C-alpha cells in the first residue's frame, strides 16, 4: 500500500501537476489529490470519454487499441493512462 | 456583491513548485465499499508511471502550443453599441444617469437619474427605470418600469439572487427598496428621515448576506457624512439600523511615511465602497479626502462618539493608502486576486493597489478630467473599465499595455461625462454605461474581452507580487 502512495506522490510532485486521480473499471475514483466534488466530476466524465476514445480507435482498426489519451485545453492538459482495471488521470498546467 | 458572482476557479503558480510530496493522497469514502486490490493497483501504476512522467516532462519543456489559439465562438472584432436607452420624463428634466445595476438574471438593467454636477438638487424629483433587454418588444425610449422618486437617486443595486428587488440611495440620505414586480406601488421598504438616516447624500448601496435571519435582508449604505450603515428590513416596511461604522479624521490609521492630514473629529466623507471577493469582512472605501482605506467589519473599536445614532458606531479603518490628487470617487476589488484593487478619482488617475502596501503598484492617467467609475472585468483578470469626464468608456488590459487603453469607446461628446459603468456578470460581453446627457448605452464587447487568456492569472500574480514595502 505504501508503494502505491509513493508512486502517486512521485507523479503529483512533477512540475505543473494540479491533480492526480486513480479510477477503477466502474468509473469510481479510488485515489485522488483533489477535493471530492472535482474528483467525482473528472472521474465520471473522463471515464466515459476514455471508453469512447477506445471504441473509436478499435472501430477504425480492430487490431489497434488505445494506449494514452491527452486533452489539451486553454488552461491545462489532462492525461489519461488506461488499462483493463484502472485509469490514471493526471492534470497538468504546462505554463512556463 | 458585484464581484462575488464570478465562478470559482482554482489557481496555482506552476512556476514555483514547493514540496508537493506533503500533499496527502486522499482515500475517498467510496473506497470503503469497493475493496481495492493493492497488488493489482500497484502493478498498474508501476506500468504507467514511466510513460506518464515522460509525458509530463515533455509537456513542461514543449513550445508546441505557444501562441496556439482556437476559436470556438464567432470572433467579434469590435465594440459596438447594442442599445441606447433613455427615459422621456428624465430627458425632459435634463437629468443625468447617476447609477446602473444589472439584475440577478442579467436580463434587466436599471438606472437611476439625478444630478452630479450643479448645485441645485434639493427638491427635484427623479426616476428609477428598468428595461428587460431579452424582451421582444424592447423600446429603447420607453422603459418597462418608471418609478417616481421624490429626491435624486444617487445609487442603485439589484439583489444578488432575487431578480426583482432593487435598493436605491437618495440625495436626501434616505435608502429605499423597490420590488419591480409590483406594478401598482413598487416601494416596499424605506429608512424614512429618522435620527439614524444619513445626513448627506448616499453614494453607494449594497446588499449584504444575512445568514442569521434568512427572511430578512440587510443593506449597506455609504455617505459623505462619514458613515457606513447597515440596515435590516422589518415587516412594517421600515428599514432599521442594526450596526454601522463611522469614519473620523483622527481615527484614520496613517502609516509613518504619509503626511499627516486634517486631524480632529471631522467626518471623513465616504464616496465609494467595494467588498473583497475573497474575505467578506474586508472592504475598501474611497473618500473625499483623496485616499482609500482598507476596512474590516470585524472591528471592535468604537468610533469617536457623535450624536444621533441609535446603535453604537465602530471605526472600521485598518490601513490607509497613499492619496490621489483629488477626491476618490470609485474603488473596485479584483475578483481574481485577494490583494488587488483599483481606485479612481478627480485627478483622472487610476491606481492599482495591493492591500499590502500604501503606495500604488501602478498609477495611470486615463483622463484630463475626472474619473467617475472603475470596474474590474468579471471574466478577464487583467482587464478593467473606466468612465471618464471626457465622455469615454476606456477598457484597459494590463496584458496588452501598461500605458494606454486597449479600447476607448466614445459614448458622448467630450463635454458630457460618463458617470457610471457596470459589467453584466451573467452576460460578460455586455457593459452598460450612463452619462450626463441621460443616455444609458449598452455596449457589446469584442471577443477578446470575454474569455480569459491562457497565462492571464500568472501575469496578474506577477503584478500583485511587485510589492516593495
From TrEMBL, chain A:
Q: So what does this one do?
A: Acts as one of several non-catalytic accessory components of the cytoplasmic dynein 1 complex that are thought to be involved in linking dynein to cargos and to adapter proteins that regulate dynein function. Cytoplasmic dynein 1 acts as a motor for the intracellular retrograde motility of vesicles and organelles along microtubules.
Q: Name one GO biological process term.
A: microtubule-based movement
Which molecular-function annotations from GO does this UniProt entry contain?
A: dynein intermediate chain binding
What species is given as this protein's source?
A: Alligator mississippiensis
What residues does the Roadblock/LAMTOR2 domain cover?
A: 4-92
Spell out the SUPFAM superfamilies in the cross-references.
Roadblock/LC7 domain
The UniProt entry's sequence similarity note says: Belongs to the GAMAD family.
Task: Tell me where in or outside the cell this protein is found.
Answer: Cytoplasm, Cytoskeleton
The name this protein carries in UniProt is Dynein light chain roadblock
- Which Gene Ontology cellular-component terms appear in the entry? cytoplasm; cytoplasmic dynein complex; microtubule
Q: What is the lineage of its organism?
A: Eukaryota, Metazoa, Chordata, Craniata, Vertebrata
> Mind listing the UniProt keywords for this protein, alphabetically?
Cytoplasm, Cytoskeleton, Dynein, Microtubule, Motor protein, Transport
UniProtKB/TrEMBL annotation, chain B:
Location in or out of the cell = Cytoplasm
- What biological process terms from GO does the record include? intraciliary transport
What is this protein called in UniProt?
Dynein 2 intermediate chain 2
Q: Which organism is it from?
A: Gopherus evgoodei
> What is one cellular component GO term in this UniProt entry?
cytoplasmic dynein complex
Database matches in SUPFAM superfamilies: WD40 repeat-like
Annotated GO molecular function terms are:
dynein heavy chain binding; dynein light chain binding
Any Pfam family: WD40
Arranged from A to Z, the UniProt key words for this protein are: Cytoplasm, Repeat, WD repeat
Amino acid at each position: 500500500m505504501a508503494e502505491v502512495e509513493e508512486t502517486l506522490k512521485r507523479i503529483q510532485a512533477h512540475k505543473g501537476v494540479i491533480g492526480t486521480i486513480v479510477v477503477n473499471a466502474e468509473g469510481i475514483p479510488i485515489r485522488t489529490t483533489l477535493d471530492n466534488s472535482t474528483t467525482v466530476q473528472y472521474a465520471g466524465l473522463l471515464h466515459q470519454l476514455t471508453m469512447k476514445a477506445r471504441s473509436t480507435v478499435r472501430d477504425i482498426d480492430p487490431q489497434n487499441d488505445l494506449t494514452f489519451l491527452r486533452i489539451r485545453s486553454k488552461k491545462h492538459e489532462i492525461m489519461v493512462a488506461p488499462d483493463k482495471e484502472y485509469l490514471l488521470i493526471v492534470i497538468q498546467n504546462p505554463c512556463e | 456583491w458585484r464581484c462575488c458572482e464570478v465562478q470559482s476557479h482554482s489557481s496555482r503558480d506552476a512556476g514555483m513548485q514547493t514540496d508537493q510530496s506533503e500533499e496527502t493522497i486522499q482515500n475517498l469514502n467510496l473506497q470503503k465499499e469497493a475493496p481495492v486490490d493493492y497488488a493489482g493497483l500497484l502493478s498498474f501504476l508501476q506500468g504507467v508511471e514511466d510513460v506518464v512522467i515522460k509525458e509530463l516532462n515533455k509537456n513542461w519543456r514543449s513550445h508546441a502550443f505557444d501562441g496556439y489559439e482556437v476559436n470556438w465562438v464567432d470572433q467579434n472584432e469590435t465594440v459596438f453599441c447594442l442599445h441606447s436607452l433613455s427615459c422621456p420624463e428624465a430627458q425632459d428634466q435634463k437629468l443625468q444617469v447617476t447609477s446602473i445595476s444589472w439584475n440577478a438574471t442579467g436580463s434587466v438593467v436599471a438606472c437611476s437619474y439625478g444630478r452630479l454636477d450643479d448645485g441645485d438638487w434639493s427638491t427635484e424629483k427623479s426616476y428609477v427605470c428598468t428595461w428587460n433587454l431579452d424582451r421582444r418588444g424592447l423600446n429603447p425610449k420607453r422603459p418597462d418600469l418608471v418609478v417616481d422618486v421624490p429626491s435624486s437617486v444617487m445609487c442603485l443595486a439589484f439583489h444578488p439572487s432575487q431578480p426583482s428587488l432593487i435598493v436605491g440611495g437618495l440625495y436626501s440620505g434616505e435608502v429605499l427598496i423597490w420590488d419591480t414586480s409590483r406594478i401598482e406601488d413598487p416601494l416596499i421598504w424605506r429608512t424614512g428621515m429618522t435620527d439614524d438616516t444619513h445626513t448627506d447624500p448616499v453614494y453607494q448601496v449594497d446588499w449584504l448576506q444575512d445568514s442569521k435571519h434568512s427572511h430578512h435582508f440587510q443593506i449597506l449604505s455609504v455617505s459623505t457624512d462619514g458613515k457606513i450603515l447597515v440596515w435590516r428590513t422589518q415587516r412594517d416596511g421600515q428599514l432599521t439600523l442594526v450596526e454601522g461604522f463611522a469614519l473620523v479624521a483622527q481615527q484614520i490609521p496613517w502609516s509613518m511615511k504619509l503626511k499627516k492630514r486634517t486631524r480632529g473629529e471631522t467626518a471623513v466623507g465616504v464616496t465609494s465602497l467595494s467588498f473583497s471577493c475573497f474575505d467578506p469582512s474586508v472592504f475598501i472605501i474611497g473618500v473625499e479626502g483623496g485616499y482609500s482605506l482598507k476596512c474590516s467589519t470585524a472591528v471592535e473599536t468604537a468610533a469617536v462618539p457623535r450624536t444621533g445614532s441609535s446603535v453604537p458606531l465602530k471605526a472600521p479603518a485598518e490601513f490607509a493608502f497613499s492619496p490621489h490628487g483629488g477626491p476618490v470617487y470609485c474603488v473596485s476589488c479584483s475578483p481574481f486576486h485577494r490583494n488587488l484593487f483599483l481606485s479612481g478619482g478627480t485627478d483622472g488617475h487610476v491606481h492599482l493597489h495591493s492591500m499590502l502596501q500604501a503606495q500604488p503598484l501602478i498609477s495611470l492617467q486615463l483622463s484630463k478630467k475626472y474619473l467617475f467609475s472603475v470596474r474590474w472585468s468579471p471574466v478577464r483578470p487583467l482587464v478593467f473599465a473606466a468612465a471618464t469626464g471626457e465622455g469615454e468608456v476606456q477598457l484597459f488590459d494590463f496584458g496588452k499595455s501598461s500605458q494606454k487603453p486597449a479600447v476607448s469607446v466614445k459614448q458622448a461628446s467630450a463635454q458630457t461625462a460618463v458617470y457610471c459603468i457596470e459589467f453584466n456578470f451573467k452576460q460578460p460581453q455586455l457593459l452598460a454605461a450612463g452619462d450626463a446627457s441621460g443616455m444609458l448605452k449598452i455596449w457589446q464587447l469584442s471577443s477578446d474581452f470575454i474569455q480569459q487568456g491562457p497565462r492571464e492569472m500568472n501575469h496578474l500574480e506577477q503584478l500583485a507580487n511587485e510589492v516593495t514595502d
